[in-house]
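ingest -> fold -> write
write: protein_1
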Amino acid sequence: MATSIHLNFGDIAFSSAVERIIVRTDAASVDISLYILSGDIENIIFSETYYPYGNLVTLHDFASIIEAEMSLWEQPLATFRLAARGADGTSGSKTFSILYCDRHTDLQPGAVIGRQFLTSRRIITVTPDIPVPLFYVVPPLKYEEQELIAYRIITRRRDTGLIRVIFSPDGYTGYGTTYRLGMLTVSRDALFDKTAKYYTKTDYEILGVTVEIGDRSVTIYYSDTTPDLRLWFTNMFNCLELAELHGDTNAKTKVKRSEAVCSDTLRLYDQSVEQSFDFQADNISLETARWLTQLFTSRDVRIVNRPYNEEDYLNESFPSVLITDSTSEVQDGDDELNKVKFTYRHTSVRPDSRISLIERIHNETYKNPFS
């Protein structure tokens, strides 16, 4: 009997669905290796020798290996190859795609990726100064099956208050034979560029936008209310999302140190500072409360502690924090409010200085009229 690999999933699967892998072989031992593919390059991430029992090797908990590797490289979608080579010279391999998902679901990835973006939210409320990243998966498509990318931009005239929805197509997703990750970055400035020709002599504002790709749809509303806390985090699909929260923060600082008497003088040594922040969210909707549970288990959380600029490239330049404790009381009735409270700490052990740069009063360079 040749060495063969049997998977409990198809050519694409959620990472949480990788439960059991079986290798059949007549060999006395078998070398099993897992590779992650990047174009034509294969990088090995796991390799071990196993000794079959009853011509079978059963592998469990490969999901943790796959998710750890995808988190390390910040990949929501990746292709892997599993190879098995028996001591008798027989071998087998399987190549498959994995869509990161750290939650249990009975849905198949093929049913999900064609109907929604890689977020559990259908409506997103944000402030307009930070762009919104939207990730999606393009399945294998023929040329004539390409999906249209379109924006339905909600505008309002400032003089009359008249609301107008402007449809703006923006190309196609492309086609190919493999699963591909796509990303859109939605910014209000870009939406103004798309709609300016419709308001050449009229002052207007943009209230929101519905982004559509094929059957996928998500609506973004813009708010002028400044949030009390902003956190970038990787969601259940290992994709970036921004949580803009309103509530109260309680900062706690503990200083620990030891005492010693030297030459009749009291001295302190081994000083350490522990700083944590307790955040209690204001009244939030049921959907938002459920979505925030992904924040509490995220592998990468960063705090937005200063004004955003284009050079930040979303979350890269912001400091990391750890969610050390969280409480989420979510109920679907009308009797009580949803309660979300959590504690976070900076990964740097040094306390935050809280020093911020003073914004410029004048943005233009001064020109001396007498020179």
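write: protein_2
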Amino acid sequence: MAFKETKSNNFSSRLLNKIYSSLNYYEKCQYKGADAYFHSEIVHPMAEGKYLLSLNELNHCGLLSKNIFLTKVIKSIQRLEKIRLKTKGQNYLWGLSFKWNDFSAEEPFLITNCVIVDGLLTIAEKNDIPEVNAYLDKCIFSMDKYMRNNSDIYGLPLYSPNISETIFNPAIYAYSLMYRAHKIKLIKVLPNKFKSSVGLIKSNFIKGVGWPYGPTNNVIDLLHQSYIINAFIKLDSPEKEIEKYMYSCLHTFKNTILNDKAIIDSQIETLDFLTKKSPYIIKEAKNAKVIVYPNKARLWSMGEMVLCLSNLTRNSKNYKKWGPVMKKIVTEILDDNDLKKDISMTYPRQYLHLVHGLTSCISTLRMI
């Protein structure tokens, strides 16, 4: 059943039309699409995770009936089952579903599994659906096992079994999911060194800037910042702490447009584009300096940033502080005519990140 678009031009209608047109496109394409790294059309597991999260938001705020929601969710689980990594036996894990660099299509990636588990867990937290509960149990068990068996020198879970570099965003995302699973008694014990690992990631935050990719990588991007902030929200971190993270993220990436990538100061002197005519933006904070690339944020970065603002607005005691910021950024996205020509709008992994952020926004606005 197609999502019905409207002809009204107010903010809520424009927002809903953007959501519905994207979901209708996804379903019309039979849940398949190409990718920036793979040009054949396939079902992408990460996209399915974001699809589940989007459906949940629409159902939660009354924009999707329970029966249609249930049908779409069960069919999504069936698609996920078809593309999980069968070579991993009874482990319910997913990779990219295509070969990337030197990694086979059978390489599991932690961030992909985080998005899928997030989709299933978020539905289970608000609904009692036997098919979801049964599948989530298997996925949580597999993720817990993966995290215990694949860790780096700091004890943090690896991005993938064959990528040993410490990367903060999938690690904290995974910990936030295990924390939530523990709260509803899906697991009895939190992962090894849970408290110290969360503390380690928190300690690498640079006020006014954000988090680098990891302790040895000074690249910083909007998508990864947003994953991390959303994870700390789900870890029930204090509101003042989350606001500090959000202010820093906006300070770095919200310029005349929403930018996507930056490098923290220790690498600046090695860059050859620091000239007076450079389009790059220098941002200074108390403890660091960053150089921001002029590139506009990618769709998944936009979506995850909106999700941050929506979660903060929804959980905040002061809607007047964050609601207008969320609406301003969403309005800029809706007004961006270049998005209609952006090839990424045909890449399910990317545009469904955006859809999830927008569905969270409309859900928040209808609840407060």
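write: annotation protein_2
The chain is about 55% helix and 5% strand.
The longest helix spans residues 130-149.
pipeline exit 0
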